[in-house]
Design a protein that fits this description.
This protein starts with a strand and ends in a 26-residue tail after the last strand. With about 150 residues, the protein is of the alpha+beta class. Strands 1-2-3-4-5 form a 5-stranded mixed sheet, with helices on both faces. The protein contains 3 helices and 5 strands, in the order βααβββαβ. The chain has a single domain, classed as Gcn5-related N-acetyltransferase (GNAT) (Aminopeptidase, 3-Layer(aba) Sandwich).
């Protein structure tokens, strides 16, 4: 069965919170191990679902992947809105198939639509240092910068 990619609903929030906890356990950012404010994250997810961003879900006999992005103004100009991916996750037992590809393809499709409609000027995706070597350029992304943490 192929995974279905869809917009998340408030009913999906408990599953999203579980995936975010899994994401946190594997991230190389130590402070995230202590960051478990479900009330705050639920509020943020609700705002993103209501139009301040995008929350995509991969559903294959249950929710097994997500891509979360926020729409905000550029630091250089309040008129220039950008969509920035915040979390991109596929459950480990669902990796190696098409789920991650389908999430990314839908993110690209939505980003292109938002650009065409004038809602955003750009959209971004990131890659953690411990992520697989995803070839974002195959989706039309260009490498812009690298982040370093201290």
């Amino acid at each position: 069965m192929r995974p279905t990619i869809r917009d998340a609903s408030p009913f999906d929030i408990p599953a999203i919170l579980d995936m975010l906890r899994s994401y946190r356990r594997l991230t190389p950012l130590p402070f995230l191990a202590e960051a478990d404010d479900a009330e705050y994250v639920t509020k943020m997810l609700t705002e993103l679902m209501a139009g301040k961003g995008l929350v995509l879900i991969a559903d294959k006999d249950g929710i097994a992947g997500m891509l979360i992005a926020v729409i905000s103004s550029s630091m250089w100009s309040p008129k220039h809105m950008m969509m920035t991916e915040m979390a991109y996750w596929v459950e480990p037992d669902c990796r190696g198939g098409t789920m991650g590809y389908r999430l990314l393809a839908e993110y690209k499709k939505r980003g292109d639509e938002l650009k065409k409609n004038g809602r955003i000027c750009n959209y971004l995706i990131s890659k953690m240092s411990n992520s697989p070597n995803l070839q974002y350029q195959k989706f039309g992304f260009e490498k812009l910068e690298e982040f370093w943490v201290a």
